[in-house]
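--- STAGE predict ---
source: upstream dedup step, 1 unique chain passed
mode: sequence only
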Amino acid sequence: MRPRPTSPRTHVALAGAAALAVAGLAAPLLTAPANAGAGTDSGRNAKPADVRFATFNASLNRLAEGDLVRDLSTPGNTQAAAVAETIQRTDPDVLLINEFDYVEGGRAAELFRDNYLEVGHNGAAPVDYPYYYVAPVNTGVPSGLDLDNSGTVGGGNDAFGFGTFPGQYGMVVYSKHPIATDDVRTFQDFLWKDMPGAVLPDDPATPEPADWYSPAELDAVRLSSKSHWDVPIRVGGRTVHFLVSHPTPPTFDGAEDRNGTRNHDEIRLWADYVSDRADYLYDDEGTYGGLPRGSRFVIAGDQNADPFDGDSFDDAILQLLDHPRVRDPHPSSAGAVEAAARDAAANLGHTGPAAQDTADFADALPNGPGNLRADYVLPDRSTKVRDAGVFWPESDDPLFRLVGTFPFPASDHRLVWVDVRPNGARGR
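--- STAGE serialize ---
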């Protein structure tokens, strides 16, 4: 898995955040029609009361600051069009996009909405999101410290989250339902050392435990490689907390496993947040604590961790999948099964179900991880799940062109969606 960093300081003044989240409020709140004939993986059969939550690592990150705004300023970018059509074919009501470079003022988010999402592609109906939320992330923000212990300071590995400029690999939430902007909580600045029992990386060349970072570095190192956001969505008369993040991949490090341990604890943050274990956790406004009991929530994002295969530390994703308050809908696709057989190599040694894979990673042995389940949409157990899936059409489906094979038209990840009924009964 390749690194998936973020951007500048996540802390946003409420007034500024409100302006970003409700951009386009003058537009009417629309419910986009289902896309008939959208392919076996994307057909929408939800009832009117159902809400589709989705996550998509869309690879809308660029090599240099300003490149994403340039690419989205006109409607002719081929990759952005493929990403937009994928979203139109699946028609989420609430969507997290990972690897979307943060641009102050929401400029990139608005350009993608106006020039791509609201423009039909290849017969797909346009989709309208009157509400969106963006905020700074840690990716590419210089720490001024030698965090990779290379002997020099500077570059992506010494940023608070891996990235070559502030905001690279950021994220954005789009919604057809109002966002309670004043109640958004962000956790960009939370220090890793302040998590009780944090799995801090250890320098194997020294006898001291958990000593990869110096005391001075631990006073600065943030837990979130991008950020963690609690974005409350108003669905009818109920609030659903959309808990979104993008933990660092557990690779691209050394024997100290600093990325693997960080990935583990980034995932743990949400596990603690929805439990009674978050008294230690402070947000960027200085407020402590986790989600109030009885709150409805959906956890979403590229978690960069597979429950069976890959390189994650200590079964990191099981902190959520085995959590007593979290429901795993086990979204799947026939296309993922076909891809695992077609790609072979590392996939032949996997123990997890290929049908639940969400990412088409490098397959060549000895280092290729193969296809993995990396992306998740996980509702709370009290929310009724109606349906779930992964947008990964088989090769004989007309929409296969949106996923393809390497080099991918849109992304090496697939969009994952879950239909829930927030006002419904318990259970599935």
